[in-house]
Specification:
Two copies of one chain form a homodimer. The first copy, chain A, is of the alpha/beta class. The first copy, chain A, folds into two domains: 89 residues, Ribosomal protein L30/S12 (60s Ribosomal Protein L30, Chain: A, 2-Layer Sandwich); 140 residues, 3-Layer(aba) Sandwich (Alpha/beta knot), CATH 3.40.1280.10. Chain A contains ten helices and ten strands. A six-stranded parallel beta sheet of chain A has the order 7-6-5-9-8-10, with helices on one face. In chain A, strand 6, helix 7 and strand 7 form a beta-alpha-beta unit. The longest helix of chain A is centred in the middle third of the chain and has 14 residues.
Chain lengths: 246, 246
């Protein structure tokens, strides 16, 4: 049985404040919850699912999960999706693992990314290109909000995402090359990144803030052939990563 | 004065059926309407704007436009934005210019793109990379819906977007190389595209349909290093275009 207070509790997790207080967030839908069960079963706190889902999916792997069967109307109430999709999982927020003092790999730094969908596609793109660490400014949109979860697809829990004061972060990483996306930098076609590096992407409207740009060892730019004034931040990140890994 | 029937008319333009019947669509917000006035004034049928916008923006260039001053409440009623932004323009739908039999440039073909935001970022990305022609399958989401307009930013009217039966399109373009995005193709890092070509991107969930894939002269793939199952369709398009123009 699901109670009114359970429903309120799940609904409250659409808000960052409650997610952080409770240390949990929501992953929804057949595909994403299916992957979650396969890949990160230990993170699942509770499943709310329709009888149909339980009948179809229930098998050995299911053992040990707390499952509450709900009807479609209740599903509609607790879901953040336009088209609720059978199952809602309450999931433990991952621990933020600090970057070691000497980086061994590439780290993507996001300075004030505001759009949750952009953040989600950036996470998914990092997962495609094997970039396992994202460091976000404290005012970057929260990675565990419903829209980001949805657009990151299954990649969210595979990436270590840390929220930290960027000035403190850069100050602790002296000596590591910092490539900052800007409109007046060196073409990404001519840059060879060797060894560990930091790649910085800025806010959708204003780019990288002045204080953060001061840490750049090289500004990098996507050459423009046409007329668009700028690129979507998720798109720019993907193009930069794709060209740097080549 | 704006009438109730004006308000209904503008609201109806959120739907493709009415846009096509009326031959117009909506562009909103200070920045985008500002660019519209600069770049494509001849396409503007009518402007609905707050007194604030008229006082601030009104100047010589304004001569000849039909402007109706509205209050914030009315703006809220006719706007499709979460945060309505001063001005709503009713704009003529651009003419779809058919591709010539022998292409002179690259054409991007979209097969069943469903997400309006994806289509918008694809249009904006094409405008960045100087690709002026997009050909969409008839079941691709409409480019003039409010979400696509918003995510395409000022690029929408700079790109010639044609909706056409793709089988008819490909049948009329024999001899032109067709590069189709797939998961099992040649790496985009090793491909050199010379001369006119067609690049095909498929549906977000299912990729390119079988009948269309049959027209491919080469399947192309973005090499994967990490674990993500797939990339967002807008992201994949951007990465492919970026690598092919290099």
């Amino acid at each position: 049985m699901i109670t009114k207070s359970d429903i309120k509790y799940i609904q409250s997790l659409a808000h960052k404040k409650f997610r952080e207080e409770e240390g949990v967030f929501i992953i929804e839908g057949i595909k994403m919850v299916g992957e979650l069960i396969q890949e990160f079963p230990e993170t699942i706190v509770h499943l709310y699912a329709t009888q149909h889902w339980v009948d179809k999916i229930c098998h050995q792997e299911f053992a040990g999960f707390h499952v509450t069967v709900i009807d479609e109307i209740t599903l509609g109430k607790i879901s953040q999706l336009k088209t609720p999709n059978q199952v809602v999982a309450v999931v433990k927020l991952p621990k933020q693992i600090p970057q070691s003092k000497t980086l061994s790999k590439w780290v993507l730094v996001l300075d004030q990314i505001q759009d949750p969908g952009n953040l989600g596609t950036i996470i998914r793109t990092c997962d495609w290109f094997g970039i396992e660490n994202i460091v976000c400014s404290l005012d970057t949109v929260d990675a565990y909000n419903p829209k980001t979860v949805q657009s990151a697809k299954g990649s969210l829990l595979r990436i270590n995402i840390q929220y930290i004061d960027l000035i403190a972060f850069f100050s602790s990483k002296k000596g590591v090359p910092v490539y900052a996306a800007a409109l007046d930098g060196t073409s990404i076609h001519t840059i060879d990144v060797e060894g560990p590096a930091i790649i910085v992407i800025g806010n959708e409207a204003n780019g990288i803030s002045k204080e953060i740009l001061a840490f750049a060892t090289q500004k990098i730019t996507i050459p423009k052939i046409g007329k668009a004034e700028s690129l979507n931040a998720g798109i720019a990140t993907a193009i930069i990563l794709s060209n740097l890994v080549r």
